[in-house]
Amino acid sequence: MPDSTRCLRQLCLLLLGYALIACSSLDSASKTVVGAVSPYKIDIVQGNFVSAEQLAAVKPGMSRAQVRDILGTPLLASVFHADRWDYVFTFRRQGQAAQSRTLSVFFKAEVLVRIEADPMPTEAEFVATLDSGRRLGKVPVLEAPPAPAQPGAAAKPPEAKAQAPLPSTYPRLEPAAP
Predict the structure, then answer these.
(1) With contact defined as beta carbons under 8 Å apart, do 91 and 98 qualify?
(2) Using the 8-state DSSP alphabet, how is residue 102 labeled?
(3) How far apart, in whole angstroms, are the C-alpha atoms of residue 32 and residue 16?
(4) Lower CB density within 10 Å: C or N end of the chain?
């Protein structure tokens, strides 16, 4: 009996060792082949993007409505801080550092008095950061082909088709009450 127990114990240890070796070889294989095991993570855009051009258009002395027309609806408008609007923007992309920008506008008696903001990119700079690095090749020119010439069709204006007049009454949608 002791020999069979010892054999069983050695067999279990041997199987456990093979299992651990298999796990480590899978881990090293996933590191050598990029993306073999890691899941795809989508780009996450949250909040209001405010460009440098929009920020330059906002000036102290503007009304709340004027500020909202330029910057859009604020992401955060607290009941406890009614004279402050916060615009927050975050952009997360797999393999890149997250971008985060904040802008706060302060009002007094419905008039803008102060702006606190992170450095904002221009629209062109922001669009350049959206490039995923994929090269799609040459983009074809999109234009309509010339219309084929029809013999005997001199430049005649198209005749307007006669349309039937619209009815003055329409059928009932509900059945008449009994």
Answers:
(1) yes
(2) E
(3) 25
(4) C
Q: What single letter denotes the amino acid at residue 16? A: L
The residue type of 147 is A
The helix (H) or strand (E) run that includes residue 45 is: strand 44-47
Q: Which has the closest alpha carbon to 85: 99, 68, 62, 61? A: 68
In whole angstroms, give the CA distance from residue 106 to residue 103: 10
The answer to whether 104 and 86 have CB atoms below 8 angstroms apart is yes
CA separation for the pair 122, 53 (Å, rounded)? 6
Task: Report phi then psi at 26, rounded to 5.
Answer: -65, -40
Q: What is the CATH number of domain 44-129?
A: 3.30.1450.10
pLDDT, tens digit (0-9, with 9 covering 90-100), for 92-142: 887 778 888 999 999 998 899 999 999 988 888 888 777 655 566 677 777
Domain ranges of the chain: 1-36, 44-129
CA distances from 176 to 19, 170, 173 (A): 79, 14, 9
